[in-house]
Amino acid sequence: MEDFPVYLFTGFLESGKTRFIKETLEDSRFNGGERTLLLLCEEGELEYDTDLPSMENVFIEVIENESDLTPRVLDYLEKKHQAERAMVEYNGMWQISSFCDNMPEAWAIYQEFLFIDAGTFLNYNANMRGLVVDKLTTCELAVFNRFGAGMDKMEFHKIVRGVSRRTAIVYESPDGNVEYDDIEDPLPYDLDAPVIMVGDEDYALWYRDVSEEPKKYKGKTVECLGMAVVNPRFQAGSFAFGRKVMTCCVEDIQFASFLALCDPAHMPENKKWYRLRFEMEFKFHKLYGRRGPVLTVRSMEEAGPPEDPVATFY
Predict the structure, then answer these.
(1) What is the mean pLDDT of the chain?
(2) Which of 172, 224, 269, 281 is most buried when burial is the number of CB atoms within 10 A of its CB?
(3) Range list of β-strands (E), 215-313
(4) What's the predicted TM-score (pTM) here?
(5) Each residue's pLDDT tens digit, 16-44
(6) Bridge partners of 238?
(7) Tell me, what's the pLDDT at 313?
(8) By C-alpha distance, which of 303, 284, 305, 304 is closest to 294?
(9) Which residues contact 121 (CB under 8 A, 6 or more apart)?
(10) CA distances from 37 to 61, 199, 205 (A)
């Protein structure tokens, strides 16, 4: 089955999504007359002029309720217009999972962009942190519109990097001038050291970096503090090693762990803290059901919990 390309544009109301979509459709490099399903999940001040040549094969459908994002509805709209691709102007108050978890089987997100009004972003982040994190987690590009001369790029940069190290960041001034974020983000540990020492305060960053780019840790030796969770259903010599991580608020705290392998005769005790030194591999394991990070324990020393048992990105 061939992919059905989806281009997802997220952001809160009046953040510049509509303007960017209109400009994209007017670009001949993107729009060569393909039959395009344009899903509007919220209505802003700007409207689409369907009489423009760029809108000739663009078919607009409005999704008014988050509950209407179902595989059946989306599949119906694709077939109704015999669409070759979809562009989605997403409602910033809806969770991304409401769309991604309900896409028809062939639908695949090819690009995801987040548009942000720099003037209101800090308030959104302070008062609706969960929604901000939701939008930053998977986007490839975050565009800060209306970025004034007196604004501090580092303040915005840190918020984005607290969620994702992969997202590219762009600042667009009110006069249309565009600057790409070039602030360096060195890891807080030496990736080329014989033993990578992950500090207690750096666990969340290390976990996320491994999750995003596991192959660069292949063959590396790492030492860090974490909790062992022994599941009787696991094969002897296998356990989960990790820490609780908070991304944005107390409600989203989860145990962020990887599979660890050790000598079955020297298994750790359940829910006790250990300082582990291990070699990392990226390979298939049946407990993952796919390829994933596997930690082969080289040494294990019982330890007390860190000063803050819940790891964060700040």
Answers:
(1) 93
(2) 224
(3) 221-229, 238-245, 254-261, 272-285, 290-302, 310-311
(4) 0.70
(5) 999 999 999 999 999 999 999 999 998 77
(6) 261
(7) 76
(8) 284
(9) 132, 144, 156, 159
(10) 7, 48, 38
